[in-house]
């Protein structure tokens, strides 16, 4: 969801232009309409009916309680249970007092409880992924969960694995984790487990194929009618294998981790709106993955009533009709329409019962019926999406207003921010700083925010610690880099000078600042904004960042660049001899300044690694968003995912394209060695086809069984304490189908090592890790022949390899069609 304003801003006219070839220019990409391939994957087959939940996989008792609850409901109450209402939270299911049900409060978002006061702003998903640290991913999710709970929100609208990062330009990549399904899958599991261990329902979103913001929603012509559509939303057209191996993969982890809810996405998918796409909702999610929770819509992503219900949607949010569901006073496609559809037999009441059973099962499983905190009334005051004037129902507030839920989370957020900071370049021992006596600080990202702590615009002056849209947070404080540097530098009695106007820096002779002489170090802070509802226009830093660096580095031979960014930035100054260090700090959250100072001064040894690839030029990336069409058909917005599995490093590796900093790359102040890579099978007879077992949440449980253990020794050889991220990449044998990427991440660990310490690290390869999705048999198959296992410190810094042959004999069994 997003604000009305940004919706209106995104109602742009169709522009007919082509993608600019120059590296950093604003680009636009016209997707030609290709009717030839419409037949191949331009449509979705119907998968009906929507399967009933059973509570299978550990939710049986909660499922029985949910069924008992449903049995007591009137039809009108049933409609209420599946239809959002305007209220204090961004999504609201109203209370049913006679059944002691106090309703559901649904709140954004992936880095904070957004509509709240006295809550923390955590690191963004991209920063959390850059830690490659399961413990931090869990802890971050858990602490956020405690804050949602403390504010009385039963449902947290997070975490994000769609967008995954198909396109470097997508405006919401920072809300999600990594441009890799394996790392994102681990991040989803850890985050969801952390959130739900706090008693809060997690929501995996956006299901599925939500890889661009441009035209994610239809274009409406409100002068004709509130919901009159001139162009349908873009259709993400994804083939079956790519769907399984890339985009569905992390959602499988989410379901495996027993996620309560899955949010369907705005755009169309293979021709049908995602929230009424039965192939993915009934087929992939509820049948193949055995999902037992409920599908909720993104805000206003519902375009039909009966069809959406039949096709697997369980909850309509925020409930009203029209753009973003913003017009509840004009009715709902669920609500009264649902009671009518049941009464006249269009929708079987058993389907509605299943919808509510799915909604109430996680509620009981998490014990939310007992002593759950009430909704904090301050949410109602801060809720710009459904302010009090829009409410159609009464909400009673009990409990204290403006409860402070931050506890001591600021300390953890500082650690998380530092752990997600990636050191990209470090020459001449530039970092860590060695008690410099004279420091010059440059850039409009260095200082305190100048436009308030709830930023929804790319303001010029002030540091960026989160992006915009529904995935942002409301800071209660924000430690800016300049203040943190001054505090730390005072310990050394250092002189700190600042110059924060980028335009001025870019056009000036910065030696004016040399007081009394060349500073020991010049720290340049650059930023890159990204937000929901808009894709990025370029991959450079904003506000003339490249010119700022050039201007400083011309006179300062120890220029250190720090970026606060939504993700990928091409860094044309990376080869400049005076740019001695580059640090990608992403969006670290409220302790930003302290997190970066900890790394710059060496109190924390950097251990972040890139969760995406930094290429030389913007034009080196494939799969740009479709930004325009040059035909006028209502259905013509199409985005063909015809790069298939070639997302991020899979593309650069397949096509042997040189990159500046590859996926998984990140430096440390120490060095590491790896040795003694060994792989051994868990069982003797590994079959190509998984044994068939009853579906559990996450799919066939055989896919999650470890079939190989891989061990390696990691040593800290560099003299200071630090953390290594050994990464295991798998190369499939030639018997795998064409299009299989040269190597794919299938294991990683974060290993904290004292100087001279050596530790053995174990990776567990599951059956899914060594399988491809066979579109003929509709099975995950292990191809016969030899796999190569590569252990590296990045995707291109491979230190040692070994090979395994799980399935020998040359032929493998395919299940008959
Ligand atoms: C419009 O699309 C057609 C293919 O459908 C293409 O040949 C033509 O060059 C496009 N025009 C522009 C301006 O992009
Ligand atoms: C349309 O798709 C087909 C099948 O993938 C391909 O062979 C053809 O080149 C495409 N046509 C255009 C104009 O892109
Ligand atoms: C769901 O359960 C109800 C009640 O047992 C039954 O009538 C209905 O047919 C079931 N639906 C499906 C899709 O199995
Ligand atoms: C509602 O809660 C009260 C107080 O705990 C209890 O006495 C009553 O039986 C409950 N009613 C229902 C329908 O569960
Ligand atoms: C039913 O849906 C229509 C839109 O199709 C809407 O105009 C109407 O208000 C809805 N009815 C109710 C009772 O919500
Ligand atoms: C809200 O509560 C007031 C006072 O109890 C009552 O008069 C009014 O009818 C209620 N409104 C709704 C929409 O339930
Ligand atoms: C920043 O510097 C430019 C160029 O000198 C100037 O035009 C602009 O007014 C300055 N901005 C502020 C806020 O001082
Ligand atoms: C910048 O200032 C320094 C010190 O005054 C001077 O040596 C240098 O020539 C100046 N550079 C330019 C381009 O004016
Ligand atoms: C690097 O900085 C020094 C001043 O310390 C300057 O003389 C030199 O020209 C700079 N190098 C480049 C390539 O700009
Ligand atoms: C920068 O230049 C100064 C003065 O020439 C020199 O003392 C210093 O060592 C140089 N620093 C680096 C990092 O090259
Ligand atoms: C690490 O080992 C080296 C070589 O044996 C030794 O010189 C050094 O003191 C050791 N460092 C620590 C911190 O133990
Ligand atoms: C593989 O199967 C085919 C067809 O059944 C058979 O002709 C061939 O000999 C088999 N190859 C091996 C290596 O077993």
UniProtKB/TrEMBL annotation:
Domain Fibronectin type III-like: 724-795
Pathway(s) annotated for this protein in UniProt: Glycan metabolism; cellulose degradation
Primary site of residence: secreted
The enzyme's E.C. designation: 3.2.1.21
Keyword match Ion transport: no
Keywords: Carbohydrate metabolism, Cellulose degradation, Glycoprotein, Glycosidase, Hydrolase, Polysaccharide degradation, Secreted, Signal
One Pfam entry name: Glyco_hydro_3
One BP term from GO: cellulose catabolic process
Signal peptide location: 1-20
Residue ranges of the TM segments: none
Function: Beta-glucosidases are one of a number of cellulolytic enzymes involved in the degradation of cellulosic biomass. Catalyzes the last step releasing glucose from the inhibitory cellobiose.
Name listed for the protein in its UniProt record: Probable beta-glucosidase G
């Amino acid at each position: 969801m997003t604000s009305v304003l940004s919706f209106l801003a995104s109602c742009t006219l169709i522009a007919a232009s082509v993608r600019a070839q120059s590296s950093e220019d604003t680009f636009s990409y016209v997707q030609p309409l290709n009717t030839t391939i419409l037949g191949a994957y331009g449509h979705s087959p119907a998968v009906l009916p929507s399967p009933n939940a059973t509570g299978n996989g550990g939710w049986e008792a909660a499922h029985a309680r949910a069924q008992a609850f449903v049995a007591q409901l009137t039809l009108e109450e049933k409609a209420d249970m599946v239809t959002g209402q305007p209220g204090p939270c961004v999504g609201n299911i109203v209370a049913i007092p006679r059944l002691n049900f106090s309703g559901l409060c649904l709140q954004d978002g992936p880095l904070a409880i957004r509509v709240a006061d006295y809550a923390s702003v955590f690191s963004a998903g991209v920063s959390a992924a850059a830690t490659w640290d399961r413990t931090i991913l869990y802890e971050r999710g858990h602490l956020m969960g405690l804050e949602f709970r403390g504010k009385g929100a039963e449902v947290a609208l997070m975490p994000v694995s769609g967008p995954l990062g198909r396109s470097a330009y997508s405006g919401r990549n920072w809300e999600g984790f990594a441009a890799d399904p394996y790392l994102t899958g681990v991040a989803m599991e850890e985050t969801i487990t952390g959130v739900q261990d706090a008693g809060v329902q997690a929501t995996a979103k956006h299901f599925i194929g939500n890889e661009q913001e441009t035209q994610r929603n239809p274009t409406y012509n409100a002068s004709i009618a509130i919901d009159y559509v001139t162009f349908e939303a873009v259709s993400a057209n994804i083939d079956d294998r790519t769907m399984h191996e890339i985009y569905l993969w992390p959602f499988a982890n989410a379901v495996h981790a027993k996620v309560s809810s899955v949010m369907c996405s705005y755009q169309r998918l293979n021709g049908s709106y995602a929230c009424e796409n039965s192939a993915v909702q009934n087929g992939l999610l509820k049948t193949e993955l055995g999902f037992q929770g409920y599908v909720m819509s993104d805000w206003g992503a519902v375009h039909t009533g009966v069809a959406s219900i039949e096709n697997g949607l369980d909850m309509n949010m925020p409930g009203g009709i029209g753009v973003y569901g913003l017009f509840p006073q004009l009715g709902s496609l669920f609500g009264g329409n649902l009671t009518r559809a049941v009464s006249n037999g269009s929708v079987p009441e058993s389907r509605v019962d299943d919808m509510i059973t799915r909604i109430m099962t996680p509620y009981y499983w998490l014990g939310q019926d007992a002593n759950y905190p009430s909704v904090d009334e301050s949410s109602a005051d801060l809720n710009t999406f459904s302010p009090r004037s829009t409410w159609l129902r009464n909400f009673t507030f009990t409990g204290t207003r403006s409860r402070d839920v931050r506890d001591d989370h600021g300390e953890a957020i500082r650690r998380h921010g530092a752990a997600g900071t990636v050191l990209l370049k470090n020459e001449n021992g530039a970092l860590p700083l060695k008690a410099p006596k004279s420091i010059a600080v440059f850039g409009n990202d260095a200082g305190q925010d100048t436009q308030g702590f709830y930023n929804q615009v790319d303001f010029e002056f002030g540091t960026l610690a989160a992006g915009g849209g529904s995935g942002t947070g409301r800071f209660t404080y924000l430690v800016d880099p300049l203040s943190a540097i001054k505090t730390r530098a005072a310990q050394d009695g250092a002189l700190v000078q600042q110059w924060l106007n980028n335009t001025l820096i870019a056009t000036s002779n910065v030696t004016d600042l040399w007081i009394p002489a060349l500073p020991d170090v010049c720290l340049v802070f650059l930023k890159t904004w990204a937000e929901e509802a808009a894709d990025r226009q370029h991959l450079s830093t904003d506000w003339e960042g490249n010119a700022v660096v050039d201007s400083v580095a011309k006179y300062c031979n120890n220029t250190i660049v720090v970026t606060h960014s939504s993700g990928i930035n091409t860094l044309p100054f990376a080869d400049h001899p005076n740019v001695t260090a580059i640090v990608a700090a992403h969006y670290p959250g409220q302790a930003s300044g302290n997190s970066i100072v900890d790394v710059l001064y060496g109190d924390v040894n950097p251990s972040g690694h890139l969760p995406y690839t930094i290429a030389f030029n913007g034009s080196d990336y494939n799969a740009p968003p479709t930004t325009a069409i040059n035909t006028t058909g209502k259905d013509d917005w199409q985005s063909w995912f015809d790069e298939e599995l070639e997302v991020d490093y899979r593309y650069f590796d397949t096509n042997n394209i040189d990159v500046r900093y590859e996926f998984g790359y990140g430096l440390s102040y120490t060095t590491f060695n790896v040795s003694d890579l060994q792989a051994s099978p868990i069982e003797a007879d590994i079959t190509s086809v998984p044994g068939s077992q009853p579906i559990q949440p996450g799919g066939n449980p055989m896919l999650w069984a470890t079939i190989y253990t891989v061990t390696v020794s990691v040593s800290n050889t560099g003299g200071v304490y630090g953390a290594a991220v050994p990464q295991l990449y798998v190369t499939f044998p030639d018997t795998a189908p064409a299009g299989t990427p040269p190597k794919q991440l299938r294991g990683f660990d974060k290993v904290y090592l004292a100087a001279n310490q050596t530790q053995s690290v174990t990776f567990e390869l599951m059956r899914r890790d060594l399988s491809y999705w066979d579109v003929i048999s509709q099975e995950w198959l292990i191809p016969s022949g030899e796999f190569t296992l590569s252990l590296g410190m990045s995707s291109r810094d491979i230190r040692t390899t070994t090979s395994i042959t799980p399935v020998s004999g040359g032929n493998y069994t395919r299940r008959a069609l």
